[in-house]
Amino acid sequence: MAYIELKDVSYRYPYTKEQALKNVTYSFERGKFYGIIGENGGGKTTLCNLIRGLIPHFYLGRLKGEALVDGVDVRDWDTGEISAKIGYVFQNPFTQISGIKETVFEEVAIGLENLGVPKDEMIERVINVCEMLNIEDLVKNNPNELSRGQRQRVAFASIIVMDTDTLVIDEPTSQLDPEGTESVFEIIRSLKESGKTIILVEHKIDLIAEHCEEILVMQGGKIAMSGPTKAILSDFGTLDLGTMIPATAVFGHAMKEAGKPLADIPITLDEAVELVERRGE
Amino acid sequence: MHVEFGNSFKKFYKTGNFWCDLYPTTKLILCFTVAMSTIVMNNWIYGFSVCLFYFIFAFFTGHGKQFTKTFLILFVIIGLFLVVIRQVGMRTGNVTPMFEIFGWIWYRESFITSLDVSSYMLGFAGGILLFFDTTPMRDLMYAFEHMGVSHVTSFIMLSSMQNIIDLRKTSVAILESQKSRGIETDGNILVRSKAFFPTISPLILGAFSSTEEKSIAMDARAFSVKRKHTFLRELKPMSQIEKILCLLFSLALISLTVWKIAAALIK
Amino acid sequence: MPFEYERIKIKKRSTIMANQKGKIDKLSLFLIPIGIAVNFIGGQIAILLKLPLYLDAIGTIVVAALCGYWPGIVVGLVSNILNAISSPTTLFYAPLNMAFAVVAVILSKRKWFKNFFKTVLSALFFALIGGGIGACITWLVYGFDFGSGVSAMFSIPLHQTLGLPKFVAQFIAETSIDVLDKVITVIAVFGVLKAIPMRFLAKLPLGRIYIKDAEMYEDDED
Question: Is A72 helix (H, G, I), strand (E, B) or coil?
Answer without folding.
Answer: strand
